[in-house]
Amino acid sequence: MWVIIGLSLVCAFLVRPSRSRRGKAARPLFKGTGAHWRRNYASRRTFLRLGAALAGSAVLAYSGADEAFDGLWSGSVRSRGTDALAKTVYHGGQRYWFLNWLVLGGVDAWLRTNAFTRWGRKNFEAMAVGLPTLWTLQRCLGATRPSDPDPSPRYRFLHDDNSASGHAFIGAIPWLTLARRAPQRALRPVARVVSLLTGWSRINDRKHYLSQVILGWTIAWNAVEAVADDAPAADPAGKELPCADSA
């Protein structure tokens, strides 16, 4: 973990062009957080997207499609090759990335700003916005893992905390952020595809059902859109308004 954070700090200071924050007014790390939360929790578009993901996930969970897909993948597709790839991309969803993006966000806010630190800051802001949704759905829906002694994707209130994949959420955020910020348009669809890999690794390892990965990834998508510089705000009635804050 500390190696990753150290390398991120080195990159933050080496990437050019950059502008020092020393001697200039700092942009507080949580500047704009209120607007980000309104975009994520009061936007009609966000609500409809999450609602569609919940509905689709419920269909997968209660129709037997989740168990069927898990059985098909583990019985016919999973191999040493998929296990090796999953073992690598799995680390993109580890919790220490939250601390890594927090450190980069702090560098951007108070020491030095460049494209790399601004990307890290957006990743931290997206995690701060999306985590309450993730934790709520994980605990309230109460589904279990495919590898648990009592495996079931069906919802059982407060029974367990695996209904939305945390690894899919954490692993998707930096790539979805990159897809919005990459200057080369050709990189954007590639980044979106890569954003799926950590979630896929959880399916391959039988740690989550397909429906649970879909929910985690959708929460990440909503959070990244909420903190994007060009994201629309939302008034209390849920109508989208022009973005007035690019922090």
Q: What does this protein look like?
A:
The chain has 247 residues and is mainly α. It has one domain (32-232). It has eleven helices and four strands, in the order αβαααααβαααααββ. The strands form two sheets. The protein has a two-stranded antiparallel ribbon. A two-stranded antiparallel ribbon has the order 3-4. Strand 3 (233-234) and strand 4 form a beta hairpin. The radius of gyration is 19 Å and the shape is globular. It starts with a helix and ends in a 6-residue tail after the last strand.
Short description:
This protein is mainly alpha-helical and 247 residues long.
Question: Strands, helices and their partners?
Answer:
Elements: H1 2-14, E1 18-20, H2 33-41, H3 44-63, H4 65-77, H5 80-89, H6 96-110, E2 112-114, H7 115-141, H8 166-181, H9 187-194, H10 197-204, H11 210-227, E3 233-234, E4 240-241
Antiparallel strand pairs: 1-2, 3-4
Helix pairs in contact: 1-6, 2-7, 2-11, 3-11, 5-10, 6-7, 7-8, 7-11, 8-9, 8-10, 8-11, 10-11
